[in-house]
Structure formats: C-alpha cells, structure tokens
C-alpha cells in the first residue's frame, strides 16, 4: 500500500489557506453529497452529516474487506464541506431556517459510481437514515475562487467575506455567484469558538 494521503499536507493550498484573502484555481474533485434546507443546528442536519460520514468511513475501511477496491490507497477522511445559499433571498442570512445547503465529503480518486452504490447499500442494511437515499456521487470543479481561513465563530463570517470582497475589487476580480463554500476544519463540540477554523471560498472571474 502506498504512502498515506493526508489532506492538510498533500492538498495544503486547498485546505490550509492563509488568514488573508487569496486566489486559487480549484481542480475537479469527487464528492459524495446531499442537499437540504433549514437550521444547521437542528436534528435533521445531524442526520444529513451522519449519512455522509457513514458512507465515507465505509469507503475508507474497505481495505479490511474481502473485496478491496482497485487502486485503494490509505488516506485521512476529508473534512466536511458545505455550499450555502438562501431559500428566500429577500431574507437575511442570519435567519437559519431560511438556509439552503449542499453538504459534502471529498472522496479518494479510486471511488467509482459502482463502488459508491455498493457502499450505500451496505450502510442501508445497517442503519435507517432517509438521507442515505438522497446521497449522490459527483465530480465538482469550483474553478477560479477567492478563499481565506476564517478563525472564530460562524456568526462572524460576514466580516471575513467582506474582506474577501474588498480583496477581489482591489485586484480586478468579481464574485460570480452569491453561494459560497465552507470547509470545516474544527469540531465545534471540542474546540473553543474563538479558535475554530473554517475555510471560506466563493467563485470569481477576472474583470479584464
């Protein structure tokens, strides 16, 4: 088995950006994902993340099975990510019940559509979770983006997004979509709010 892939080392530019805004071109990556709406602090959101992690860990631990996936390599499970939007765009982003999201976990390159379907069926035999039926496997390319590391409360993210908007304007870029991506590097159950790390990212294009 080859060297273990660790996202913070092998994909540092994607997952450990600076605490100031910068530009990056995000290449194609495979994800398992599921979409929903509502308060991310609620019980339904917990079921969403449970479904994602159940399949992600089944993929990771598949090397212990009698049918090891072709091309399997050891790796650290990637962090949870989310693309966020508003159901009703006339309402403020602070109304958490109005949030719309697609939560996802990046997957290793050896995962295929067939393997994904097999792992989902395996988990469905062990757990009852309606979101397992809604999981999809898809390759995503974010392309040119502005990103930075936000340190602190999720509620303080607007300040970081404002810095990113200013950076784009000063450097000849414009945001192309009001949705944004968040990558969660800290467990809020175990980390002081002031020390939580979240990668913030949104798509941009050059105005030239």
UniProtKB/TrEMBL annotation:
Specify the domain of life of the species encoding this protein.
Bacteria
Annotated GyrI-like small molecule binding domain ranges read 21-205
List the InterPro entries hit by this protein, alphabetically: GyrI-like, GyrI-like_CCH_Lin2189-like, Reg_factor_effector_dom_sf
Q: What protein am I looking at? A: GyrI-like small molecule binding domain-containing protein
């Amino acid at each position: 088995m080859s060297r273990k892939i660790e996202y913070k080392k092998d994909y540092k530019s994607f997952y450990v950006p600076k605490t100031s805004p910068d530009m990056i071109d995000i290449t194609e990556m495979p994800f398992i994902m599921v979409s929903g709406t509502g308060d991310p602090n609620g019980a339904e959101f917990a079921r969403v993340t449970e479904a994602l992690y159940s399949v992600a860990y089944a993929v990771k631990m598949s090397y212990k099975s009698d049918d090891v996936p072709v091309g399997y390599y050891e790796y650290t499970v990637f962090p949870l990510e989310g693309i966020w939007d508003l159901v009703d765009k006339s309402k403020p982003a602070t109304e958490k019940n109005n949030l719309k999201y697609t939560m996802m976990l990046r997957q290793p390159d050896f995962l295929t559509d067939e393997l994904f379907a097999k792992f989902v069926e395996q988990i469905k035999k062990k757990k009852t979770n309606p979101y397992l039926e809604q999981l999809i496997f898809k390759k995503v390319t974010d392309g040119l983006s502005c990103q930075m590391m936000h340190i602190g409360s999720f509620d303080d993210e607007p300040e970081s997004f404002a810095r990113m908007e200013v950076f784009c304007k000063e450097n000849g870029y414009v945001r192309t979509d009001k949705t944004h991506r968040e990558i969660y590097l800290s467990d809020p159950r175990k980390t002081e709010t002031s020390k939580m790390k979240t990668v913030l990212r949104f798509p941009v294009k050059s105005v030239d």
